[in-house]
Amino acid sequence: MHAQFVKSFAKFEQMVEIEPLPQIAFVGRSNAGKSSLLNMLTNHKGLAVTSQKPGRTRLINFFKVNDIHFVDLPGYGYSVASKSAEHGWGVEITNYLVKSEHLKLVFVLLDIRHAPSALDVGMLHFLQGHGITFKILATKCDKLSRAQQGNAKMKLATTLGLGKDDIILTSATNRQGREIILSILTNLSKSDIIHSGVK
Questions:
Q1: Is the pLDDT of residue 52 over 80?
Q2: Can you tell me the distance from the alpha carbon of 62 to that of 7, in angstroms, rounded to the nearest whole number?
Q3: pTM of the model as a whole
Q4: Which helix (H) or strand (E) holds 27?
Q5: Integer angstrom CA distances of residue 130 from 12, 48, 96, 140, 159
Q6: Which range (30-34, 117-121, 187-191) has the least confidence?
């Protein structure tokens, strides 16, 4: 799998220069493990920068993976961030999700060990309200036993009102879920854009 960093953007309007490829977005709380998951999926340990301190991703980062763009959106809800910065991230995440003409799927990352926060639930309602296709990636599953994972998945599905097939168990440590995610990406049709976007 060929993967490379393309560019970071602070504003949606700056993205006009991006090559028009299908886009897969990754969103979640700042400690959900987005960077680690991206590195695991692409087999590139240093592709997305990881940090011990959540909230480092403050820009919208584009990575070209074969013929798809992976889009790493800023984490939401990190308390150390200033209110003005946090609000700014929210605006740009919203702009991107609503206006992008090439967005095909959103992966929402949730730490399987914790109940979804109000921000997580709000993000899912936002995606549903705008007709944007999404799947849940339940991260850090290596921290639980197989039995605990099954119970947590069922509880998560019930809490969010989703089917079990909408939730994929993942771990950046032992690569759990990688083949399932790659299969989903392989089956995506380049012509099957979620929405036409806002010009």
A1: no
A2: 5
A3: 0.85
A4: strand 23-28
A5: 18, 28, 12, 28, 21
A6: 187-191
Q: What would the CATH number be for the domain defined by 3-187?
A: 3.40.50.300
Structural tokens at position 192: 């099957």
Report the C-alpha gap between 59 and 169 in whole angstroms: 27
Non-local CB neighbours of 48 within 8 Å, separated by 6+ positions? 34, 35, 36, 38, 39, 61, 63, 72
First to last CA, the chain: 32
The model's confidence at residue 17, banded by pLDDT at 50, 70 and 90, is confident
Residue with tokens 């992976």: 70
| Segments of 78-182 assigned E as strands | 103-111, 134-139, 167-169
Give residue for tokens 């909230």. 55
| Per-residue pLDDT reduced to its tens digit, 113-134 | 999 988 889 889 999 999 999 9
Tokens of 76: 């939401």
Nearest-angstrom CA–CA distance, 37 and 33: 6
Contact status, residue 8 vs residue 60, Cβ threshold 8 Å? yes
Residue 75, pLDDT score: 83
Average per-residue pLDDT in the chain?
A: 83
Task: Give me the phi and psi of 193, to 5 degrees please.
Answer: -80, 140
Q: Which two tokens stand for residue 1?
A: 């799998």
In the chain, what are the helix, strand and coil shares in percent, each to the nearest 5?
A: 40, 20, 40
